[in-house]
Amino acid sequence: MLNKKEIVARINTIREEKGVTAAALAEKIGVQRSSFSHLISGRNKPSLDLLVRLHEAYPEYSLDWLVFGTSTPPSSDRFAAVDKEVLPPPDLPPAPDQKITQENPRISSKVVGTILLFEDGSFEHFSSKS
Questions:
Q1: What domains are defined for the chain?
Q2: Rounded CA gap, 10 and 108, in Å?
Q3: Which of 21, 35, 44, 98 is deepest in the core (most CB within 10 A)?
């Protein structure tokens, strides 16, 4: 089960590192300020749509980190010289004729979890590590 409080804490980390108010962040990712305020206060749960919008606004923060907290968040100074409007190239899968090797561990990775998306924007995570 996902810890929604930890997800909100990671969202606040981004807000603090970027030096923006909750209202400014809500506007940047295209959500209503009241919805964002309710999220920060714990009244609302973070939706996958909100997390994707946040990742699109700040691609240096991976969805893996936003949702699960399992990868390392970026160092603020690591991206200091990067133009914030330039998106990094997407992580593309290898070409069909490319062999599975140690250089491509993603291809041979096992599925460790599933995310169910609901119409109301909420989601549930199921992990095979349970």
A1: 4-73+99-127 (1.10.260.40)
A2: 29
A3: 44
**pLDDT tens figures, 40-86:** 888 889 988 999 999 999 999 988 898 888 876 665 444 444 444 44
Place of tokens 């998106």: 87
d(CA 52, CA 31): 12
Element (H, E) at 45: none
34, HSE (Cβ side, Cα atoms, 13 Å): 0
Residue 31 contacts residue 50 (beta carbons within 8 Å): yes
Q: Angle at the Cα of 16 (from 42 to 12), degrees rounded to 5?
A: 20
Tokens for 75? 């160092």
Amino acid, single-letter form, for residue 119: E
Residue ranges of the alpha helices (H) in the chain? 4-18, 22-29, 33-41, 48-57, 63-68
pTM for the predicted model, two decimal places: 0.56
> What tokens were used for 19?
């030096």
- Amino acid at residue number 53: R
Q: For residue 114, list its beta bridge partners.
A: 126
